[in-house]
């Protein structure tokens, strides 16, 4: 009879480990979910601890988008998710393909086009899965400009106001936690209100809420509305807190020739990565060459007008804040590349400077910014109104007169065959007193 050799402790432990049923732990988890509704579309963003491994498909009757996330914990409570999208009914879990993953169902209110893509960590975000839902049948907004057959009628001057960043892209973040996207939207809304209150002017906002629009698509909005001018509002930032002051930028057909300009170009690319990868992926060499050729043919007038207007804006801003640069700056920025529309980008101050971050959070200062920009725009179009606009028509029916010694309002009214009240109204005069050298607008009867 043979005796069995005693089993060592190490071998026994190995056998026991093999007999234990292996337990799999999902390495990924959902940290948060955000829903960003915008006109005709909605963006849903999953913040994840690790790079998402996903697949998806759609279902009808009712319409749903189903997403399978591999190796992911079922840790997020969709019942607590804030949802103001008219396109999305709700998000919920369903039976997963396997025990290590999860299945998320997005219930839709109608059939939508969907585009999903993952984004790597980019401050202030971690790994993300982005779901873009688009309603291709959404009613298009009515054209802003209506050409009248009656030649006696004239159109409004259309000014598109672009609030920089938005939604998934917060822009620069101040040391006090201020998001640039909130500053820009508020200043843009104030500027739009001033423009809309001016007879013969009309504003269009590229975004009216907190949602993302690609920098490349913002000039398209201006072109769609046949804009006479595009103004993009931003708040500057730099790697150190010392730089301060406002600045105004126009498009450069070459690379930026200053360190700040190069920083801005890099920041714009950063915004594309924050907001979405689709435009970056589609940036092919052939498209760049075609765009360059088109810009070379039609940019001269736009650049000249943009530069002239930017000098006027700088002149007005100088009255309320320090200027970082006293002349217009140039950089290759996508939001300025509309070849047929004069475009400027206004940096309202450095959000990375603690003192200017405080100013930008001050309601009175934001109003001063809007008023200064509007005053420069009004001066520009008073001098050079579009030919078919109401302002051009009014300019053709007015004259100017420089007051000389011995002249009075009654004398000028008699000379030009108009009444005194009309001259006072055209020049916002509260009394009959005029100064030598004063330039008066004389309306035509």
Automatic annotation (TrEMBL):
One of its GO terms (cellular component) is outer membrane-bounded periplasmic space. Residues 399-442 form the LysM domain. InterPro entries: AMIN_dom, LysM, LysM_dom_sf, MurNAc-LAA_cat, N-acetylmuramoyl_amidase_3. Coiled coil: none annotated. PROSITE patterns: LYSM (PS51782). Keywords: Cell wall biogenesis/degradation, Hydrolase. PANTHER family: N-ACETYLMURAMOYL-L-ALANINE AMIDASE (PTHR30404), N-ACETYLMURAMOYL-L-ALANINE AMIDASE AMIB (PTHR30404:SF6). This is N-acetylmuramoyl-L-alanine amidase.
């Amino acid at each position: 009879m043979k005796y069995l050799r005693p089993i060592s402790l190490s071998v026994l432990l190995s056998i026991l480990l093999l007999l234990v049923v292996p337990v799999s732990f999902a390495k990924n988890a959902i940290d948060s979910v955000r829903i960003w509704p915008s006109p005709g579309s909605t963006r849903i963003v999953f913040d994840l601890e690790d790079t998402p491994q996903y697949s998806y498909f759609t279902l009808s009757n009712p319409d749903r988008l189903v997403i399978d996330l591999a190796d992911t914990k079922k840790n997020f409570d969709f019942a607590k998710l804030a949802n103001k999208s008219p396109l999305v009914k709700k998000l919920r879990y369903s039976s997963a393909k396997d025990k290590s993953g999860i299945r998320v169902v997005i219930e839709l209110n109608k059939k939508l086009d969907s585009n999903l893509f993952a984004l790597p960590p980019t401050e202030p975000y971690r790994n993300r899965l982005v779901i873009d839902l688009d309603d291709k049948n959404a009613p298009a907004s009515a054209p802003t400009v209506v050409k009248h057959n009656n030649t006696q009628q004239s159109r409004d001057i259309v000014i598109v106001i672009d609030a920089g960043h938005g939604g998934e892209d917060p822009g620069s973040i101040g040391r006090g936690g201020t998001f640039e996207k909130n500053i820009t939207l508020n200043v843009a809304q104030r500027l739009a209100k001033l423009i809309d209150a001016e007879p013969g002017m009309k504003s269009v906002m590229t975004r009216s809420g907190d949602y993302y629009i690609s920098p490349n698509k913002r000039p398209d909005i201006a072109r769609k509305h046949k804009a006479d001018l595009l103004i993009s509002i931003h708040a500057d930032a730099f790697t150190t807190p010392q730089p301060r002051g406002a600045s105004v930028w126009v498009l450069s057909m070459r690379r930026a020739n200053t360190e700040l300009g190069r920083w801005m170009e890099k920041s714009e690319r950063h915004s594309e990565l924050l907001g979405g990868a689709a435009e970056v992926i589609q940036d092919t060499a052939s498209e760049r060459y075609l765009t360059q050729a088109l810009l070379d043919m039609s940019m001269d007038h736009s650049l000249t007008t943009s530069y002239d207007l930017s000098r006027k804006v700088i002149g007005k801003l100088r009255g309320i804040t320090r200027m970082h640069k006293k002349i217009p700056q140039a950089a290759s920025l996508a939001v300025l590349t509309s070849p047929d529309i004069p475009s400027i980008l206004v940096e309202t101050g450095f959000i990375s400077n603690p003192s200017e971050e405080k100013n930008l959070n001050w309601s009175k200062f934001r109003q001063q910014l809007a008023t200064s920009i509007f005053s420069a725009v009004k001066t520009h179009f008073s001098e050079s109104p579009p030919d078919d606009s109401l302002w051009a028509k009014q300019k053709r029916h007015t004259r100017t007169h420089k007051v000389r010694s011995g002249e009075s309002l009654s004398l000028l009214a008699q000379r030009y065959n108009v009444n005194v009240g009309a001259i006072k109204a055209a020049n916002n005069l509260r009394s009959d007193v005029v100064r030598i050298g004063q330039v008066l607008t004389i309306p035509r009867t």
